Amino acid sequence: MIRLFIFFYSLVCCNIAIAQKAVKNFELNLPEQKISHSLYNTIEYIDSRSDTSNMGIVQTGAFNKKARVVPATPFNLQLQKLMDALTDNSTSGKGVLLFQLRQLSFAEITGAMSEKGYCYLRAALYEKQHEGYSYINSIDTILVIKSMDVTKRLFRDGSKLFAEFIGGNLNKPASDEFVYTYADIVHIDSLEKKKLKVYNMDTYTDGVYTSYRSFTDQLPDYTNMDVMLKRDTVSGVKVKDAEGKIKKIKSKDIYAVIYNGKIFIATDYGYYPAEKYSNDFLFPGKAKVAASTGDMIAAGVFFGIIGSLIAENTANATFEMKIDHINGGFIRLREVKTY
Q1: Cβ atoms within 10 Å of 104's Cβ, excluding its own
Q2: How would DSSP label each residue in 236-295?
Q3: What one-character DSSP code corresponds to residue 35?
C-alpha cells in the first residue's frame, strides 16, 4: 500500500513538473486594414506586470494539459510589427507611442460540456514628447469565450483587443496636458494611489462601506451600526437606515466595515481584517474564483491566482489578498496555511 501511494505521489509530482515546463506561444495577429493619417509610426513598450514570466495559463491537447502562455517573439517586437501593419507609410506621422502593459492574463476553465476562456487586459498608451510622456488612453477589460475548444479563439480575439485598442488611438493626440517622466510611468501605481484618500491616511473613518468608491473616499454609507465580534474579527453587522429601521446586512452585499479604526474587508465568505503594508492593503481571506465581464472584483480574484497551474482546486483555501487600487478587486498573492 505504501509503495502504491509513493508511485501515485511520484506520478502526480511528475505531471505537475511537466505542466510547469509546458508553454504555449502567443503571437499577435496582424490586421489587413490600415489606418490613414496616423499621428504615430513607432511604438515603445514597457511591461509593468508584477509577474512577467508568463501571460497566463491555457489548456492544450485532448487531456487539457496546462501550459503557461509565453510569447516566442519578444512582445516589444510584436507590437512594432502590429504598428507597421496598422499604419500607412504614405500618410502617417512620425510620432512615437509608449505602450504600457499592466496586466495580460489568459485562463481557461473546463466545464461539463464546454470550456470557458478569459483574457484580462489592462494597458495604457502615452504620446512621447521632448519633455516626457502624455497620457492618451487606457483599456481595462475582460474577454470571455465559451466553446468546446477555446484556446485558438481566445488568442485570436485577445490579439484583436490589442489591434483595436492601438488602432483606435492612432489618430488621437494626448488627452492630458500633464507630462510624465519615464520613472513616473514605471511607478504609475504610486502616483495613482496618491489620488486615493484611503491610501494617504493613518487613521480610518468608522462605518459600513457598500462600494470600493466610498471606501477610497472614506465616506461611509452607514455610520450608525452595531458590530458583532468573534475572535477579534467581525462576525455580523447591523445598521440603522434613514427611516430608523434596524437591518442586518450580509458581507456579500458590502465592500468593507471599519470598526474602532480597523479595516475589515467583506467577501462572500465573511469579514477579514486588513492591514496596509508598503502602501498596499492586504488581508488573509477567501473569495470566489469566478470571473465575468460584469464583475471586475471577481475577475481580480480569478486572475490573481493564474500563476498557479493547479489554481482551480483552491476555491476553499485561504489566501493572502491584495486590494487592486484601480477597481477594488481582490488579487490572490499566495496561499495561507491554516491549522
Answers
A1: 24
A2: EEEEE-TTS-EEEE-GGG-SEEEETTEEEEEETTEEEEEEEETTEEEEEE------BTTB
A3: B
Average pLDDT, the chain: 83
Question: CA 311, 316, 321: angle at the middle one, nearest 5?
Answer: 70
- Strands ordered across the beta sheet of 23-24: 23-24, 65-69, 57-60
Q: DSSP code of 28? A: P
Share of the chain above pLDDT 70, in %: 81
For the stretch 195-254, pLDDT in tens is 999 999 999 999 999 999 999 999 999 999 999 998 889 989 999 877 888 999 999 999
Task: Say yes or no: 174 and 200 in one domain.
Answer: no
> Could you tell me if 157 and 237 lie in one domain?
no
Residue 19 has pLDDT above 60, yes or no: no
Q: Which domain CATH number covers 77?
A: 3.40.50
Q: Which of 28, 161, 29, 183 is nearest to 98 (CA)?
A: 183
Contact (Cβ atoms closer than 8 angstroms) between residue 181 and residue 128:
no
Query: Do 107 and 204 lie in a common domain?
Result: no
Return the minimum-mean-pLDDT range out of 172-176, 179-183, 278-282. Answer: 172-176
Q: Last residue of some domain: 154, 186, 218?
A: 186
CA atoms within 13 A on the CB side of 46: 19
Spatial strand order in the sheet of 95-110: 40-47, 95-110, 115-128, 133-147, 179-180
- Torsion sign across C-alpha atoms 244, 249, 255, 258: positive
Question: Where in the sequence is the domain holding 54, given as residue range(s)?
Answer: 20-186
pTM of the model: 0.80
Is pLDDT above 90 for 85? yes
